[in-house]
């Protein structure tokens, strides 16, 4: 599935879904799959995993979220394995 353009409703919708889910679960972290399951269908959420990660990266670039692995902030484009998304620690 191609990356949603952030200027489209799909890209914006995923970014908004990440932020909304973080607000509801504050101060906890979320998994990209939590967002994909919330936005996608029961059978189709896996196809949203990369678009959710792409949306998270756009939010990282704007300073709105951090991506962590084992509690440490990581570079999403280069990290392998499961990650979590959180609001930046202040």
UniProtKB/TrEMBL annotation:
It holds the Pfam family DUF3253. SUPFAM superfamilies: Winged helix' DNA-binding domain (SSF46785). InterPro entries: DUF3253 (IPR021660), WH-like_DNA-bd_sf (IPR036388), WH_DNA-bd_sf (IPR036390). This is DUF3253 domain-containing protein.
């Amino acid at each position: 599935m191609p990356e949603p353009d952030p200027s489209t409703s799909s890209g914006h919708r995923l970014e908004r879904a990440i932020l909304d889910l973080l607000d509801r679960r504050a101060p906890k972290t979320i998994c990209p799959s939590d967002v994909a399951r919330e936005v996608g269908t029961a059978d189709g959420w896996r196809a949203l995993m990369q678009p959710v990660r792409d949306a998270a990266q756009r939010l990282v670039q704007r300073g709105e979220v951090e991506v962590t692995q084992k509690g440490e902030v990581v570079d999403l484009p280069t990290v392998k394995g499961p990650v979590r998304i959180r609001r930046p620690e202040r």
